[in-house]
Write a structure and sequence with these properties.
The complex is a heterodimer of chains A (218) and B (242). Chain A is mostly helical and 218 residues long. Helices cover 86% and strands 0% of the residues of chain A. Chain A has nine helices and no strands. Chain B has 242 residues and is an all-alpha fold. Chain B has helices at residues 9-40, 55-82, 85-117, 125-146, 150-178, 198-241. The chains are: A mainly alpha (218), B mainly alpha (242).
Chain lengths: 218, 242
């Protein structure tokens, strides 16, 4: 299991890397927003939590087709399916390595990008907490979407159509937590919902992903 | 005599062939009576004027938009558990009807909202969750269209339907958390003393019955079309082999 995890992370970081790409996309998105809405720092500060969350969502989306596609093409996935390791565990590990290479860096980078959007400093803590709680759910859901479309030639666009509606509850609670934090309101209910979504996704979605993989490999 | 006999496509085709004309005629009758009654023979509301009459399209279509997804959920489960092809095809057949109902509900709501709320669209929880439902339908249909092997497509769309149902429901309640609503609460409930005033209520019930029957008729029609096209494909490939 650890070998598989290390292999996936190495591949993500080294081979033409989806690793830096997601982060760079996040940066560019955040830089583009002030050009779109104007440099007024009041407006930017108000929309910053939403922009950062939507940006994190889209950056996660960007690297989804890397989760299974290459393994499917070179036959690694068939080996994984016949290996003694249950496919559910392999799917969870894939999601974990996706989170370690996209969700975690995004969480670390978000406060710095928040400065660019003149986000109020009291919101920064809540932004980091909400991203840390929410992005694992994004990776889990993304793994499910990638598993559904693994057999397709051009699954990239389809994956976004399938996965983005599934991301919606996470986005709602995540952005709401940061917004409430920025206004000094209690954030615990939104954060608890976010944690609940992540916990539920982590517990149940590997089964759905593994089922979808088996259907695709049959 | 059990429900599972209709898992046999031939039985399904026989029975649906008999039922379809009846259901179609009934649906047409209900819709005609309900809509004409609703549009021309009910009084205007004292505050909303004649705009209240959009209720006869808006409410039944919204109802069917949700019920179509529920039907897809049930048929998907049956396909996953018992592998009956008719069930998977019925789910495939229901999706375009459901998305049309969702669109009708959204559009009639927008037309009504402009004079009443002063806006075509508001990010109200109910409106938003319907838009999300629309996106789920889109994704579901896109997945059906993208996969060539029909059995794999049925499998994967069923799994998507199951996961999607959970998240559609979650979104439905998450948006409550996110914004306060303009849309009125439930005004048709079985356990309430008074619902909408009777003059509007009776034609509305007829319209709902009409929409339900219309949905059943369309699903039967589309499912039998799917079965026929499956058969044609099977025959064509058999011809090629021989």
């Amino acid at each position: 299991m650890i070998a598989l995890l290390r292999r996936d992370i190495k591949l993500a970081i080294r081979a033409g890397g989806g690793f830096g790409l997601g982060l760079a996309f996040f940066l560019i998105l955040v830089v583009l927003v002030p050009f779109g809405v104007g440099p007024n720092s009041d407006i930017l500060a108000r929309i910053a939590p939403g922009i950062l969350w939507v940006g994190a969502l889209l950056s996660c989306l960007l690297s989804l087709d890397r989760i299974f596609q290459l393994d499917y093409e070179d036959g690694t996935l068939d080996l994984l399916a016949t290996a003694p390791l249950p496919l559910e565990a392999a799917a969870s590990l894939k999601a974990l390595s996706h989170w370690l290479t996209t969700g975690l860096p995004l969480t670390v980078a978000a406060p710095f990008l928040g400065v660019l959007l003149s986000m109020p400093s009291e919101a920064t803590l809540w932004l980091v907490i909400s991203l840390a709680l929410g992005t694992p759910a994004l990776s889990m859901l993304g793994t499910f979407g990638a598993a559904l479309t693994v057999g397709l030639k051009r699954g990239g666009l389809l994956v976004s159509l399938l996965v983005l509606p599934l991301y919606m509850p996470t986005l709602i609670f995540g952005a709401e937590a940061v917004r409430r934090g920025a206004e000094g309101l209690p954030t615990s209910s939104a954060l608890l919902f976010l944690a609940a979504i992540t916990a539920g996704c982590t517990a149940l979605l590997p089964f759905a992903s593994a089922a979808a993989l088996r259907m695709n490999l049959r | 005599m059990s429900l599972w006999e209709y898992a046999n496509p031939t039985r399904f085709m026989q029975t649906s062939g008999k039922v379809l004309p009846v259901v179609s005629v009934l649906s047409l009758a209900c819709l005609l009576i309900g809509l004409v009654w609703g549009f021309f023979f009910t009084p205007d509301d004292y505050r909303q004027g004649s705009t209240v009459k959009i209720i006869y399209l808006h409410v039944p279509s919204a109802l069917m938009a949700i019920n179509a997804w529920l039907m897809m959920l049930v048929t998907s489960l049956i396909w996953l558990v018992r592998r009956h092809h008719v069930s998977a095809l019925a789910a495939k057949a229901a999706a375009p009807i459901g998305i049309t109902m969702t669109l009708i509900a959204l559009i009639t709501g927008a037309i009504w909202g402009q004079p009443m709320w002063g806006t075509y669209w508001a990010w109200d929880p109910r409106l938003t969750s319907f838009l999300i439902l629309f996106l789920f339908y889109l994704g579901y249909m896109a997945l059906w269209a993208a996969i060539e092997n029909p059995d794999t497509a049925a499998d994967l769309t069923s799994v998507l339907c199951l996961v999607g149902s959970v998240f559609a429901l979650l979104s439905r309640y998450a948006v409550n958390f996110w914004n306060q609503g303009l849309h009125q609460g439930a005004s048709l409930s079985l356990d309430k003393e008074e619902n909408v005033a009777d003059v509007f209520y009776l034609p509305l019930l007829v319209c709902i019955a009409g929409f339900v029957l219309l949905f059943v008729a369309l699903v039967l029609l589309r499912t039998s079309t799917e079965i026929r096209s499956r058969r044609t494909n099977a025959l064509i490939s058999r011809e090629r082999l021989s």
